Amino acid sequence: MNPSWTLEVEGFGKIKQASIAVKPLMLFVGDNNSGKSYLASLFWGVTEWMRRLDFSEDDIKTDIFLRNFLEQEKGKPEITITNEVFEHLLPFINKRLDSEKDTLIQRILNNQEINIKRLTIKNIILNESLVLYKDDHPNSVAILEKYKLKAKGDYFLLHKKAGHSHRGVSSPSILACAINALVIKFLFSLYFPASRTGFMLTYKSLIADSISSWGIDKEPKSRFSRPTIDFLQRLTKLEPKKDIYHNIAESLESEILNGQIISTAIVANDFSYQPQGTTQPLPLYLSSSLVTELAPLIIFLKYSSEYGAIILEEPEAHLHPAVQRILIRHLIKLVNRGIPVLITTHSDTIFQQVNNLISLYQHPKREKLQTEFGYHDDELIAPNEVSAYQFTNTPDGTDVEALKQVDGNGFAVPTFNQTILDLSKETIALQRD
């Protein structure tokens, strides 16, 4: 079940306007200080806001279709949610979002001075109907018994996710459960901020300032943004046990780190790096920036499944181009297991690697080339699973442009192409003269 929707933004920081279509893999690229991190943080916050959203019968009483729908379906053991339901529900979602948008932005960025002119959700499309089950439905009872859960009179949507037995969202409200279903793959999005080395070396002291804040609806003591506070707090909640994505984490350790990240829990989690072939772990402050930059991603893949999406700022930081290529292959493995990934990046290597994996996915000689270059099926990605956006600074703000794919060969990225062209011309001129 892959519902699609679009987030539209106007007058947000430097961003004049943007229209971001949700895809399993999204890439933000462009000028420094152009608003990429702002928009990535907003995406984190909007999905947090949506999963807490609910409507009473009084809230939607002006819509005859929704009112009749609730009256007819209430109490049924099985309820089907169609595109028509969302077509009628969307105006109420956007009315609530409009009334709360400034407060939401200020909470996300932890700054009371920031506002937004327009924030809208559009184009909700289900590629198949959603089916909600009452927890006394036979389909639900088996799952509840398997996981030793008690029925609470809820409706819930069961979502089969690669690697998971089942994952779902539940609520006593039909409409809340339906709205949750829109963002089910983005539930508990995990935001990896830039400068991860600094956070990994100092996170225990930083936790002291932020531990009283959890989620989008509580006041923080820290001055960090909400996604960053959420990231720090989750580090303290991890348990040193293998999770369902541990094989991807271990592959990253083997292919990039040549060692492993070790977690020990005393008061709060301690992390260290043990190089391959040694018996003595190193504290992270004695490890290379390669290790400390990748450690957070590896740690969460090893020890936690309490997230539904990954938002990763500048994954190329401190990584050699060859290592960037390996990392992207592993991130696409996560996408193919049902974990959406949003990346902000300045790396032409990352974009070209994504382009190659798109191109190979549909190449007429795929099998031959896949064997030649050593790619696995789960490292390739379909063109319609990826979107990319370029952020360009202008005198009156940032333009955000959806990049187009070129003949099934991935994205042409003007911000990279022009720079590479200028550098090439300069190099040729210097060598010629």
From TrEMBL:
Gene3D superfamilies: P-loop containing nucleotide triphosphate hydrolases. InterPro entries: AAA_GajA/Old/RecF-like (IPR041685), Bact_Antivir_Def_Nuclease (IPR051396), P-loop_NTPase (IPR027417). It comes from the Bacteria. Pfam families: AAA_15. Residues 7-140, 241-350 form the Endonuclease GajA/Old nuclease/RecF-like AAA domain. This is Endonuclease GajA/Old nuclease/RecF-like AAA domain-containing protein.
